[in-house]
DNA sequence: GTGAAAGCGCTAACAC
DNA sequence: GTGTTAGCGCTTTCAC
């Protein structure tokens, strides 16, 4: 008996079991087959350490059961959470995730979308940074964007209502007596950021508040760096693009000997797990990020079942008031 | 001109360009071809919106350029970081990541490994929870484990030197005068946890320190819940399985009116990004997690190039002393 | 330099 | 029930 060097195929199993490849296939896929033959096939497969080739199956089936996911930054906990929701939902339907990180680069994003599309049945683009008209070109296959408006294009969209969330947090701050609010802006290409900034502008106008926008980013370091500009502006409350940014700012304020919320109130977006454990616990707009992932899969599944059937899901946010926001300090 | 309903294949392009499929293939893959034909093929491909089928390519090539990655919890920032390193490294070699989350379940882990293996050229198992002997059965293809000893088995291993890290942090605490140290243990199946606990035991014995181990887990909630047991034991310093757990405990201590580090010193593992922004900033054992991901790819790549060629990489840790550890309180 | 044809490993008609 | 065979879409000899 000679060792098979190359990986055993269904042909090898068939030969060893003295049956046809069709029978092997049937046994492997649980079709009705004579018990004796089942036994022989099973034995041969085990003997040869046979493992079916997924690629060949996919080619034959015309589908890979792979879903491509593109995120701007794998390190951001809020994308991890989305990924988790997505992995969970797709997993129950036997689909797996092909994950790529565009590192906030539009060029990478473009290249990766092209590449992922070759291997996947559908694509989920998380907070894509590419302009809408360019995204439209990829809408040839099943496609869902998260946290990104898609206009009337033939793709689906799942996201949260950032506008309402921001409106709510601004109202909360206004109620506490704050008249000058700072905003630590997120990545310039981020649609969520634009949406939050727009809501802030609208709310501030309606409530006659002053607003100072400082460009930050999406990480704690970005928030930390933004402190000086914020202090110079003389705001009494700050809303950060996300919790990570808020955390960086919080640390900076503490280093300056400023107390939160006595001297400055602070709120974030996301409600990442650590938010509640900070000192003070962070007031934040909770986003159902994991649920966005699950909804994205549902939308994609609809497209998979019936091409061209796209929809939009916008999930509500919830203001979680904790210790980092308080009454505005008395002003002279 | 009728619309092609099914996706256009290389045959459609060949027909439209009046050339053979071989020529189309050559053009697509940048082989030498008559410029005029190149033009025609390009035009036809564009006209038909042709996209090559990645599955067919993979089948023909005998490789998918897909790497399966299994993590116990996608929500844990330290796995995100590893994923990032891995995505980065594999990406530069044209490989993509097939990601699955076992949710800390051994059954899921087993099932997912089987499934991933069908579609991938190689596997990276992050902190696998399955017993070693079972893992060995999967070592038929290229395989790398992270943060897991693999004995003499035919697989590679990339990880950090948890033992040395724990030894260092214990010495640090002993130097500060602590004589009774608490350990918030991680997931029971985690090899890293076992390693850290072993190091703690050894160090404590050498330094004649008392140790109290409290079972926690890997999340902040786990750390938070462990507080009562720890207080009852009367420790003056605590080492947590990871930073997340430490954060939960830190919040709990604060709620009890206890000051860190005046009343209790606290240290974690990982040095996740928020660690430095906490109040007080967290003393922790920094693990080069992203680098572990990169090294895992290098080890896998070696196996891909030459079957059976496995190795082990153990990266050094670094104690980062911040504000959460201080002198032991005077004891009566 | 180009085309015809074989074949990657599997499944699904289709005959028997 | 089981075997034979034709593909799935692509790349790659091998002739020409």
TrEMBL record, chains A, B:
- Which keywords accompany this UniProt record? DNA-binding, Transcription, Transcription regulation
Enumerate the transmembrane spans.
none
Q: Which domain of life is it from?
A: Bacteria
Taxonomic source organism: Streptomyces sp. 900116325
All copies of domain HTH lacI-type, residue ranges = 8-61
Per its record, how is this protein called by name?
LacI family DNA-binding transcriptional regulator
Which SMART domains does the protein's record reference? HTH_LACI
Q: Which GO terms describe its molecular function?
A: DNA binding
């Amino acid at each position: 008996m000679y060792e098979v060097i190359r990986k055993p195929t269904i042909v090898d199993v068939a030969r060893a079991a003295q049956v046809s490849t069709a029978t092997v296939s049937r046994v492997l896929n649980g079709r009705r087959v004579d018990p004796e033959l089942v036994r022989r096939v099973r034995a041969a497969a085990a003997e040869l350490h046979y493992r079916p080739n997924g690629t060949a199956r996919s080619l034959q089936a015309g589908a890979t059961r792979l879903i491509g996911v593109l995120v701007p930054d794998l390190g951001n906990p809020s994308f991890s959470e989305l990924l988790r929701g997505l992995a969970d939902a797709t997993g129950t339907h036997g689909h797996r995730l092909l994950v790529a990180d565009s590192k906030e680069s539009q060029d990478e994003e473009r290249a990766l979308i092209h590449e992922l599309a070759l291997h996947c049945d559908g694509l989920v683009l998380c907070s894509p940074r590419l302009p809408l008209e360019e995204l439209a070109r990829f809408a040839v296959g099943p496609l869902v964007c998260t946290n990104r408006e898609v206009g009337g294009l033939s793709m689906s969209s799942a996201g949260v209502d950032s506008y309402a969330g921001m409106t709510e947090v601004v109202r909360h701050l206004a109620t506490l007596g704050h008249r000058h609010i700072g905003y630590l802006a997120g990545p310039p290409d981020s649609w969520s950021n634009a949406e939050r900034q727009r809501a802030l502008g609208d709310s501030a106008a309606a409530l006659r508040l002053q607003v100072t926008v400082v460009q930050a980013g999406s990480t704690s370091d970005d928030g930390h760096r933004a402190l000086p500009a914020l202090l110079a502006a003389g705001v009494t409350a700050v809303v950060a693009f996300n919790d990570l940014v808020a955390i960086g700012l919080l640390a900076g304020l503490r280093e300056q000997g400023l107390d939160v919320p006595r001297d400055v109130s602070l709120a974030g977006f996301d409600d990442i797990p650590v938010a509640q454990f900070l000192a003070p616990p962070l007031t934040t707009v909770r986003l159902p990020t994991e649920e966005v992932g699950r909804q994205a899969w549902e939308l994609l599944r609809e497209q998979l079942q019936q091409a061209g059937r796209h929809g939009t899901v916008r999930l509500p946010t919830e203001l979680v008031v904790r210790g980092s926001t308080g009454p505005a300090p008395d002003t002279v």
